Amino acid sequence: MAGVNLKIDGVEIEAPVGENLMQAATRAGVRVPGLCQLDGLSVVGACRLCMVEIAGTPRPRPACATPVGESMDVHTDTPRLREHRRVLLEMLFAEGQHICAACVASGACELQNLAAELGVDHVNFTPPPTRLEMDLSHPRFGYDPSRCVLCTRCVRACAEVEGAFTWGVAGRGRETHLVADLGVPWGEAESCTSCGKCVSACPVGALFEKGTSVGERRVTRALVSTLTARRDRESHREVLK
Amino acid sequence: MSGGVDLFDLAQKEREEQAVYRRTVLCCGSTACLSGGAQATQDAIRDVVAEKGLEQDVRLVATGCMGLCSRGPLVKVRSRGEDDVLYADVDADAGRRIAEQHLAAGQPVEERTLSLEHPFFARQVRVVLENMGEIDPNRIEDYIAHGGYRALRDAVSTMTPAGVIDVVQRSGLRGRGGGGYPAGSKWKLLNEAKSDQKTVIANGDEGDPGAYMDRTVMEDDPHRVLEGMAIAAYATGAIKGYIYVRAEYPVAVRRLEQAIRQAKRHKLLGKNLFGTDFSFDVEIRIGAGAFVCGEETALMASIMGQRGTPVLRPPYPTERGLWGHPSMINNVETLANVPTIMRRGADWFANIGTETSRGTKVFALAGKLENTGLIEVPMGITLREIIEEIGGGVAGAKAFKAAQTGGPSGGCIPLKHIDTPMDYDSLLALGSIMGSGGLIVMDEDVAMPDVARFFMRFCMDESCGKCLPCRAGTYEMYELLDALVTGRGTAATLVRLETLCEVVRTNSLCGLGQTAPNPVLSTLHYFRPEYEALLVPDGAHLAGLPGAHVAAAAESASAFADGSERSA
Ligand SMILES: Cc1cc2nc3c(=O)[nH]c(=O)nc-3n(C[C@H](O)[C@H](O)[C@H](O)COP(=O)(O)O)c2cc1C
Ligand code: SF4
Ligand code: SF4
Ligand code: FES
Fold first, then answer.
1. Pick from A161, A165, A151: which is nearest to A226 by CA?
2. Which of A1, A191, B133, B271 could join B66 via S-S bond, C-beta 3.0 to 4.6 A?
3. Are residues A171 and A219 in the same domain?
């Protein structure tokens, strides 16, 4: 496969055409923060935490959605990017109600980890005064919209891996929220196969297994990536046959 | 004649039929005038014409917008061998009088007339709006009699696609949807894309608050949009066109549907047009009225029946558009320029306007002016000329303060830049944008932080919610602006606001978020003292709350001196 040579934070690396900057950075040993991207799912570029600077490009670009290019000079951790990421994360915290001490995902939460990684030690915005109602209608799982960061990983895992298309997005602006089927309680969504892929893809504690308590969420996010990797390998074999 | 209709025959027949009448009464039947009672005016005139038995003599036409909406309903009387007479503020009574005196007795009702030499009209140059107030938008024959569909016929039967693109490129036409991307270059990209499933899309979403340029074109000259699209399709190899119209424009939808039916009947749309193998069809898609659906990738998602949210570019629509096939999106006004450019030539068009901004621009002139309405001016005209000559100056002997262009994505132009030429680059240099044509004039009574808050509220409500910077950032910026305007903002509020402007502008996914901070940035740039005058000392906003005395006591007396009336 044809390759390109580029530099990420000074590290020279060769990357196959078609790879994105996030993947190339990971191979170069450079971690780029991000929330909406999950290996194996389509790329939406929505959280904007993975923005990186490319020399000669006026605006930062999302690493997860920018293909590698020959002789690119990429910077992933400039003071400007760091500041912007911190502000973005603060706003994300203030959009919902993230009370880590009472969350099933605490200790296994990508949002919490990012806060530590980016040095967010306070939130300078005011969170909404009331919690949104939880959807506990599903026999095995629950959904807490106040913890949802709207990464849409669950939507994509459900549609692209399970093929059930249960989850969708409705509303706009601050009112944006998830809906099951055409807006019914999750437990009544006929398309749901109860496979739990959405739960394992969720970066935070918004989707959880019932019966788990504070800090008991298992880290199973690789599940979706593993499944898709296997699927792609299988279909590759089919093609070769 | 190469197949199908003979346009010349049709045009000739229509002109002969019209020439039978001694007088033609052109009544503005556009949305603004209709809401001002134009229907009653028309009925009154029709009644008198019937009473006096003048039906053989007088032709009554409900036309499109004549522009001076603030003086509507407008009525124009055209008599054989005489100059046109224009009447303003014609209510039903005035309509009767005009019919009795002017139509029946040949005596114009002088006190109601408005000179066509009035600078409101004289300073305008009409390309896109050339048929406004002249034709009946319900009749394809009228459009054809005014030269319509000739450009399409000539392009299809005598020119190559490359030849058409060459004309559009040489004309210098740039996109009128806001971005100003050269139309010819975009056409060329689609032309070069390899596919037999290409589409062209006319963007009639027009979400800017107060803007109605595209609505007027679609309602009052719908065939012009179809002809522009068909020429674009011929030049690019597209087989299908979509017009995306917002649901709030039911009249536009009806007129366009009717126009499509008429064009098909006359074989101006459909298979094998003009006896060639060029085929082209147009369908209307109705948007749900979200501002963001005007963004091209969200618009395409909406056409495909998905949720109308933007998706990352590249790939650009000309690479991967509707259902994965190459597509091209042009604004309605951009396309409406095309028939006239093809008919009158690239050089003629390029002679209007400035070096980098050719042609004209339609503006919805609104705000504190004597004359408001829909105007079409050559690019490069100064803001002062628009305000003082066309607009008749600021209303009520007030002083001009600023003009907002580009709506929620644009910025303001203060008095010191009133002599700026209105073209893409000059406006950009001032921190505003040409935008799609909203032009709001504000007088000395307007507080600029209020303006910024108004537009931020709009962006907050219209953010699609997909990406974090815009979804959360527009909300937080609105909260900060609201705090400032309501006397709860401190110096730190202002600093935070500026940080957020930068974060949202830099990181948002689509144009909505990327430009949402513009009204704040530009009002801050030109009117910073107004913001600073709103600031209260830290802690002052706590006055009256439990424990406020603690904060108050911590402040020195002098710090309170100028904020005292707020903390009282
Ligand atoms: C939030 C947003 C709203 C937009 N709304 C419109 C619109 O209502 N009409 C329009 O023509 N273009 C709109 N645009 C611009 C379109 O994306 C696109 O650039 C334009 O239709 C291209 O046509 P043009 O090249 O002829 O200008 C909008 C862009 C954004 C980011
Ligand atoms: S529920 Fe979880 S996975 Fe789904 S959008 Fe919210 S945060 Fe993302
Ligand atoms: S910038 Fe705003 S409107 Fe555009 S994708 Fe992001 S949230 Fe949606
Ligand atoms: S990880 Fe790239 S935008 Fe979210």
1. A161
2. B133
3. yes
Taking the C-alpha atoms of residue B249 and residue B268, their distance in angstroms, rounded to an integer, is 25
Say if residue A73 is in the same domain as residue A143: no
Kindly state whether residues B339 and B249 are assigned to the same domain. yes
Name which of B467, B510, B538 to mutate to probe chain A: the one with the most chain A Cβ atoms within 10 A of its Cβ: B467
Q: Could you tell me whether strands A177-180 and A167-170 are parallel, antiparallel, or unpaired per DSSP bridges?
A: antiparallel
Type of residue numbered B197: Q
CA of B193 to the centre of ligand 4 (A): 30
For the residues B288-314, what does the mean pLDDT come to? 94
Residues making up chain A, counted from first to last = 241
Give pLDDT, residue B563.
Answer: 38
Write b or e for each residue in B523-556: b if 16 or more Cβ atoms lie within 10 A of its Cβ, otherwise e.
bbebbeebbeebbbbebbbbbeeeeeeebbeebe
Name the minimum distance, in Å, from the CA of B90 to any CA of chain A: 44
pLDDT tens digits for B500-522?
A: 999 999 999 999 999 999 999 99
- B473 interfacial to chain A (CB closer than 8 Å): yes
Digit-coded pLDDT (tens) for B103-152: 999 999 998 899 988 999 999 999 999 999 899 999 999 999 999 999 99
**B84 lies in a domain?**
yes
pTM of the complete model: 0.92
Decide if the complex's ipTM is over 0.85.
yes
C-alpha–C-alpha distance, residues B1 and A10, integer Å = 68
Q: Six-digit token pair at B169?
A: 């490129």
Test site for ligand 4: of A41, A42, A50, A66, most ligand atoms within 8 A of the Cβ: A50
In the DSSP assignment, the letter for residue B324 is G
Dig out the tokens for B250 from the structure.
């039911």
Mean pLDDT score across all residues of chain B: 92
CATH of the domain at A193: 3.30.70.20
User: What is the C-alpha to C-alpha distance for residues B345 and B74, in angstroms, rounded to an integer?
Assistant: 32
Q: Is B175 in the pocket of ligand 1 (CB under 6 A)?
A: yes
A32 in a structural domain? yes
* Nearest to B136, CA basis, from B30, B272, B284, B282: B30
- CA–CA separation, B187 and B162 (whole Å): 10
Which residues span the domain enclosing A174? 97-230
The HSE-up count of residue A186 (CA atoms within 13 Å, CB side) is 24
pLDDT at B542 over 90: no
> B462 and A88 in contact by Cβ < 8 A?
no
- Cβ of B512 closer than 6 Å to ligand 1, yes or no, is yes
End-to-end CA distance of chain A: 20
pLDDT of B44 higher than 90 = yes
Same domain, B211 and B342: yes
Q: Does B1 have pLDDT greater than 60?
A: no
Give the C-alpha separation, B62 to B78, whole Å: 14
Q: Measured from the CA of A33, which atom of ligand 4 is nearest? A: 1
Give, using CA atoms, the residue closest to atom 6 of ligand 3. Answer: B467
| Three-state DSSP state, A100 | helix
Alpha-carbon distance B466 to nearest alpha carbon in chain A (angstroms): 6
Tell which of B503, B505, B541 to mutate to test the A interface (max A CBs under 10 Å). B503
Query: Does residue B462 belong to the interface with chain A, where contact is any CB pair within 8 Å?
Result: yes
**Chain B CB within 8 Å of residue A169 CB:** yes
Residues of chain B contacting A88 with CB distance shorter than 8 Å: 468-469, 472, 503, 507
